[in-house]
Design a protein that fits this description.
The protein is an alpha+beta fold. The chain folds into 2 domains: 144 residues, no CATH class; 94 residues, Winged helix-like DNA-binding domain superfamily/Winged helix DNA-binding domain (Arc Repressor Mutant, subunit A). 46% of the residues lie in helices and 23% in strands. Strands 1-2-7-4-5 form a 5-stranded antiparallel beta sheet. Strands 8-9-10-11 form a 4-stranded antiparallel beta sheet, with no helix packed on it. The protein has a 3-stranded antiparallel beta sheet with strand order 12-14-13. A hairpin with a 5-residue loop joins strand 4 and strand 5. The longest helix has 28 residues. The protein starts with a helix and ends with a strand. About 8% of the residues have low confidence.
């Protein structure tokens, strides 16, 4: 039981360490797509187009593509400003690469990369205004590069160490189950007539019938078994099972004896005999 709890604890620790890393490197896809859709609409609005549709945002590996229903022109300076403001508005503080691709030739007509670092302040090369044409915007977002030092220190964890812990757990598990299986096979049981009594499991087996015993039922039956065919005084049974509580549960003993008799009724050779005024005796 202690080994099982240890393994469970290690698994929870590893999951807890992995969760923040994965959560930060995979910002909610819906959040990103919503921001990119707003970027698309603002690009069209900058062209005076309020009726054309922004087509569904497509995810391509680690990038997102914005396709448009109609042709449009764009000014690099205005485009970069729109992208920066919408990503910031959505709380996506990340390094990213923006590429404007010609729909027909598949050539990149404009691109730039933004780094979020304290040492560099990269300003995109704005270039010339682009004429109207069929374009799509491809934005590759690297969330890990976008985290500042404070966020990274507080939430990241060496992945090699996490995988080492998980590997160790996977090595432990087979040994654990082998140990448990071996223990269960070798767990002691006692024959009471045609019954098999397993005190450690709290189980009473008759052919294919398995009956669970409470802790007190198991202790009481074990005490009777250890003195089988001999009378045990009530005081002795109370002390063995209930200890110092025996003075207060005298009637409870009779109730438990009745429960055990019912569970042993499948073998008529097994009886718990009441020795009037003295105690009880297990006979088989």
């Amino acid at each position: 039981m202690q080994m099982k709890r240890l393994v469970s604890t290690l698994i929870l620790i590893c999951l807890g360490l992995i969760a923040p890393v994965e959560g930060q490197s995979n910002t909610d896809i819906k959040q990103i797509k919503a921001a990119l859709r707003r970027i698309g609409h603002r690009v069209l609005a900058a062209n005076g187009d309020s009726s054309a549709r922004v087509l569904p945002i497509l995810k391509e590996e680690d990038a997102f593509r914005i396709n448009f229903e109609r042709e449009f022109s764009f000014k690099p300076a205005l485009l970069s400003s729109i992208v920066e403001k919408e990503l910031e508005r959505s709380g996506i503080n990340a390094a990213y690469i923006l590429e404007v691709e010609d729909c027909h030739s598949k050539e990149v007509v404009y691109s730039y990369e933004v780094f979020f670092t304290e040492k560099e302040d990269i300003i995109p090369c704005f270039g010339r205004d682009q004429p109207a044409g069929c374009y799509s915007l491809l934005i590759s977002i690297n969330l890990l590069k976008g985290m500042n030092d404070e966020e990274t220190t507080g939430s990241s964890f060496p992945m090699w160490l996490i995988w080492l812990l998980l590997g160790s757990i996977l090595l432990i598990l087979p040994s654990l189950y082998f140990y448990r299986g071996k223990k269960s096979k070798n767990s002691s049981f006692f024959s009471i007539g045609k019954y098999q009594f397993q005190p450690e499991r709290g189980e009473l087996v008759f052919n294919t019938l398995r009956q669970e015993l409470t802790g007190k039922e198991s202790e009481l039956l074990l005490a009777l078994y250890n003195s089988r065919n001999h009378t045990l005084k009530r005081e002795e049974l109370l002390q063995a099972v209930w200890g110092d509580e025996g003075d207060y549960v005298g009637r409870t003993l009779d109730v438990f004896i009745s429960k055990l008799r019912k569970k042993l009724e499948h073998d008529p050779e097994v009886k718990i005999q009441n020795i009037r005024g003295v105690g009880y005796k297990l006979i088989f």
